[in-house]
Amino acid sequence: MSGFAARGLTKRFHRGVETVTALAGVDLTVAAGELVALVGPSGSGKSTLLALLCGWETPDEGSLTLGGPLTGRRPADLGWPELALVPQALGLVADLSIADNVLLPARLRGQDETARAGLLLADFGLSHLAGRYPQQSSLGEQQRAAVARALLLRPAVLLADEPTAHQDRGHADQLLDAVEAATREGSAVLLATHDETAWARADRVLTLRDGRLTGGLPS
Amino acid sequence: MSRPALWRLAPWTRAPLLGLRQPAAVLAVLVTTAVLACALASAPLFLSSARSAALQQQLAAGCAEAGWGQTGVVVRLLDQNGDPTGVEPVGAGTDRALADGWADVGADAAVAVAITAPGPVTTSGGGRTSLPARVLFRTGALDHVRWEQGPATGTAGVAVPASWAEPAGLAPGDTLGLGGATVPVVGVYTDLFAYDPGPTWCDYRPLFANDASADTPPPALLLASDAAVVDAVSPGTAATELLRQVPVDAADTSVSDATALLRDQARAQAAALSATGAPADLAVPGTRLAEAVARAELVESGLRGPVVPVAVAGALLALVLVAAAGSSWADRRATEVRLLAARGVGPVPLAGKAALELGLPALAGAALGWGAARLLVAALGPADDLDPAATTTALGAGAAAFVAGLAAAAAVAGLRARGTAERAPGSAPHRPARVPWEVGLLLAAGWCWALLQGRDAVVSERGVAQVDGLLVAFPLLGVAGAAVLTARLLTALLPRLRRWAARRRPTVFLAVNRLAAARAATATLLVAVTLPVAVLGYTATLTAGSRATLEAKVGVQIGAGAAVLSVSRFDPTPAVTAAGAYVVRYGSASVTDPEGGRTDVQVLAVDPDDLAGTAAWVDSFADEPLPDLLARLEGPDVDGRLPVVAAGLPAGPADLRLGSLPVPAQVVGTADVLPGRRTAAPVVLVDADRLPEVDRTAGADRTAELWTDGETAAAQEALTAAGSQRNRTIVPADVQTTADFLGITWTFGYLSALAVFVGVIALGGLLLYLQARSRVRVSGYVMARRLGLTRRTHLASLVVELGGVAVAGTVVGGVLAAGAVALVYRRLDVDLLRPPTPLLDVPWTALAATVVLTPAAAVLAALYAQRAADRADPATVLREDAWL
Fold first, then answer.
1. What residues in B contact A59, CB-CB < 8 Å?
2. Is there a single domain that holds both residue B680 and residue B652?
3. What is the ipTM of this complex?
4. For A135, which of B424, B780, B787 is closest by C-beta distance?
5. How confident is the model over B810-859, as pLDDT tens digits?
6. Closest to B59 measured CA to CA, from B747, B745, B733, B748
7. Does any domain span residue B202?
8. Of B48, B150, B476, B492, which has fewest CB within 10 angstroms of its CB?
9. For chain A, how many structural domains are there in total?
């Protein structure tokens, strides 16, 4: 499996005459098999950092290096088995059922992961919703489906933005259990989260404030 | 502190400017309102255009003078017993009064005409000429004759026709005595009946040619060099007719122009009568223009029945599109609208906000639509000449489109804002959507069909054929109902199709799931494709069939594209047979009927080897081709009987008589219709070379005819060279007044335009469908790309999705069109008196274009949707989704 390392990541946004620095010189390393929690207030740049790490945004300065078999590749070029993500908006396809959303990464590769999908749906209490459309489910159920989709192909790197935001304690723990299981299988996991339970279960906690990263919990 | 009224808050006060910042919504409302305005405005413009075209085509079919203003006076010096009436003879004063009458109304009556009644003529030698003569003066007439001798310049007198001058030995310089005056001969001109003298003489043909009989020529036509010659001659004639005509170019005359001219004509005539003291019954005003105007208005009234409902139906469809544009606005302004709704702003103020934002685009769209209707009618309509009242009505229609369109868009936008109209994918349809209301349309169609059984589908009022409105309503209602019902049934299969697609490639899987997730939208899109395909197929086929049937009826009557007739006896020369198919018609022919009596027949002696290449023929006329039928004429005699081919007689022996000459015949071939049928009597074709000589004394009423493909000049010259005199032509305009059937072709032409219009609406609906679901599509696309979806696979799935609907709609539309045509086309007999019965002429080119263009439009729409998806920034899209 692979981890990744970011050095001096800087991202600025220009809004008219104003320039906003969302990230300023962020250094971040997540090793294979490591669960890192990213903490910070709203507007601190967490989502921007995740967007840079998955390749949806390009940094103005700095570099991102992937380890192991992903060495030399760009995040934007990675497939779902290499880098999976759970965006804050979840990104479920509205025209597909819950089950089809979870299975989509495998279907697009011609792989049959029906059994694993069934297990994930059962683990997250979604089996009875398999045939429903996302909008026919609650936000929490949609969120669990998004996490199940991310875990389907056992990704080398998993990025998740507030994956337990809409969960009760019980379901949140189910999700964290699954994420921990992924790290035991070698995935490098970065969770942006306000969930203190997640902080406690993480190997490390990093705090992002005003675009700068510090170690440890926020004060 | 009281809350300020909502209308004074920034979201409303700034709404007009805010609206302009949403170019997609602006464009959607502008275009859809333009479509609505075009639909509403097109009806009065089209009717006015049709009215003008009906008038123009009637006038074009006749002589130019039919469309001119005309006033006149007949001065009778002798009554029918030949006694003097005591009326003053004509003089310059009479003509001046006529001219002044026109001048008083501001018109230039540039053409003066004076015609005397025929009278005896004496030559300078004292003898009488063989034929009486009349004198004609017409402005510019002598510039349009062929001179054989003269003209003598500087001398007032008359030009004489050659055939009249030659026996009398007349030449320029001689004098004639007519009407008590002595008139010099200024020249000899070629008889006008000997060649095509051109449009100048069109209206005067009865004065120089007797088309009914070559043996009874009309009085000689002496052409006066000026009006004073007529003034000099008229005291000695029984009557003189004086006319003043206002030339008008009928090619661009509208009914309102013609009506204004008729009003001026009436005033000018009254003024002339007053000035001359002539009684009203001696007035000779032009009547043909008034008759043409009345028939044009009849054509328009016949069109109004089908056109107005069709325009309303098109406008309602367009209104749905405008409403969809309002829904699109709600999507585009979703964030603000939801915030306002969450703050307690109700649907009415939200609708008001939408109206303020969309008002300017709607106004521009209405103006654009009116302009488009005007341009389309001018470019594609029957005529470009519209009445001012129609233009004003169309402006009102445009204003109504603005009001109705804006109200619809705003209402839907307000409803969408409260979420009552937005439905999540896969959710159960509202109860009203489950009611198969389209069955009501089918029942209405069935009711119209039942009513049609009891009456004629095509009625003729004063010769003008009009389509019964039910014949238009029935198929449109049926097609619309069947299209919606078929779409409902097909989309009901989508869940099953989705299960099937689960085992298919991602291309098909994604496409089917998108269709299944939005069944209502899918059904709407399917109907939007089916309707224009069905209506276009139906109207194009009926239009083509009506035209083909009319052409066939005319062709059967004439025998070919045109015919030149001659009652002279002459031997056909090689030039004659080269110019067309030579046919000899025996008008007084009969056959013994089964009861032993005699039945009239039309016998045509033909050259079997030559006729088939020229004669009007449609394969449905007989069970075998015409050449095969004609070949039977060359077969052996049957029991001494001449082989003949007949339409209207059974096979077997037929005792023919050509006048008094018996001709035993055997009908060896039969057809339902044969070319050359001029009466209702059966038609018999016989080989001319095998027919016995039919002498004049037999009284068979023999006419020689030369059938051509349409050109008659060469035929006329060939016949004249062979010795024929006083030829007469028959062209399609002589058989049927085209204007009488304009209502038929224009009704279906307008329906075809409706089909294209609905196609435009369908295209607009397709784009709005894509636009409305674009956020959902793009959001799903950007994430799916991350999941492993390739751009190529996504584009392919769009093509499958949209192309599948397009192909299904095309197939269903084609089937519905075929069914509607099969039910209706036999009822569309535009002329019951003449065969053949309605023909089916499938416009393969138009249908092929539809079959190609419809899926092509779907592919273009897929490319458009792909481009929109490609341009999306994943981070931005998902960030916006998170806000929502």
1. none
2. yes
3. 0.91
4. B424
5. 999 999 999 999 988 888 887 777 888 898 989 898 889 888 988 898 89
6. B733
7. yes
8. B492
9. 1
